[in-house]
Amino acid sequence: MSPLVVRPESPQDGPRIERLLDESFGKDRQNRGVYALRAPQRHIRSLAYVGVDTTGQIQGTLRFWPLQIDEQQADQEGDPAAVLLGPIAIAQAHQGKGYAAILINRGLSDAAALGYGLCFLVTDTPQVYRRYAFTNAQGRFSLPVDLGPKKSFLLMELKRGALSLWPTGAALGAAA
Ligand SMILES: CC(C)(COP(=O)(O)OP(=O)(O)OC[C@H]1O[C@@H](n2cnc3c(N)ncnc32)[C@H](O)[C@@H]1OP(=O)(O)O)[C@@H](O)C(=O)NCCC(=O)NCCS
């Protein structure tokens, strides 16, 4: 199996990414509650990555979405408040080789460099994220939808002290 190389997503990658996401999460994926936090077509272009094989085929994708907290787009220092990590998908033939970890490490590092304070994620496989500094966000922030009992709602600080800026129960939403 040829190795994957990570590069920034470009606009013409859209259709192949949609196909990979349909294969990974099902064609009804947009009915999932987490999509309430993803404004259509509004993922953060500078935090969007693909993994391509030696023929240039996209075999992996990671996107992040801008979030607002209590309707604020920025923290007290004017840095963007938060991002939502995901969706992340690696084509089946390339799974288990550490590519998700490469994409996630790259994304978290770039999000921190861009000044984002917090990173959230919703998942039914929290094991994938065990190696990162995610903690439980349930009850700490409120969501616009009920995610159901099977989902883990996690957060991590990208900027030290960012969590302390927001009161318990602060409302998360898709940034306009
Ligand atoms: C989840 C997914 C992105 C992982 O991609 P990957 O490149 O195989 O992941 P990595 O090789 O970087 O492995 C990351 C870690 O997560 C673990 N892991 C991967 N998939 C897992 C799963 N479904 N359940 C539990 N643990 C899992 C791996 O064992 C590995 O842990 P380790 O390093 O301690 O062994 C990939 O399986 C996928 O696209 N799945 C379908 C879509 C999906 O579920 N996306 C995540 C939704 S939040």
Question: What does this molecule look like?
Answer:
The protein has helices at residues 14-25, 99-113; strands spanning 5-8, 48-52, 58-69, 82-90, 118-123, 135-136, 141-142, 152-157, 170-174. β4, α2 and β5 (118-123) form a beta-alpha-beta unit. The chain is an alpha+beta fold and 176 residues long. The protein is globular. The mean pLDDT is 95. The protein starts with a strand and ends with a strand. It has one domain: 3-Layer(aba) Sandwich (Aminopeptidase), CATH 3.40.630. The chain is built from two helices and nine strands. Strands 1, 2, 3, 4, 5, 6, 7, 8 and 9 form a nine-stranded mixed beta sheet that branches. The site of coenzyme A (COA) has 17 residues, from α1, β4 and α2.
Topology:
Elements: E1 5-8, H1 14-25, E2 48-52, E3 58-69, E4 82-90, H2 99-113, E5 118-123, E6 135-136, E7 141-142, E8 152-157, E9 170-174
Parallel strand pairs: 4-5, 7-9
Antiparallel strand pairs: 1-2, 2-3, 3-4, 3-9, 5-8, 6-8
The structure holds coenzyme A (COA).
The site of coenzyme A (COA) has 17 residues, from α1, β4 and α2.
What is the residue-mean pLDDT, rounded to a whole number?
Answer: 95
Q: Can you write the helix and strand succession as a string?
A: EHEEEHEEEEE
Bound molecules: coenzyme A
Overall CATH architecture: 3-Layer(aba) Sandwich
CATH third-tier fold name: Aminopeptidase
Number of strand segments: 9
Per DSSP, what share of the residues sits in E-state strands of 2 or more residues?
25-35%
- Helix vs. strand class: alpha+beta
Give the fraction of residues assigned to helices.
10-25%
Major sheet attributes: 9 strands, mixed
Count of DSSP-assigned helices: 2
Q: State the fourth-level CATH superfamily.
A: Gcn5-related N-acetyltransferase (GNAT)
How many domains in all? Answer: 1
- Which residue ranges are poorly predicted, with pLDDT under 50 across at least 5 consecutive positions? none
Provide the CATH top-level class.
Answer: Alpha Beta
**Which outline best applies?**
globular
What's the Cα radius of gyration?
16 Å
Q: How far is the first residue's CA from the last residue's CA? A: 41 Å
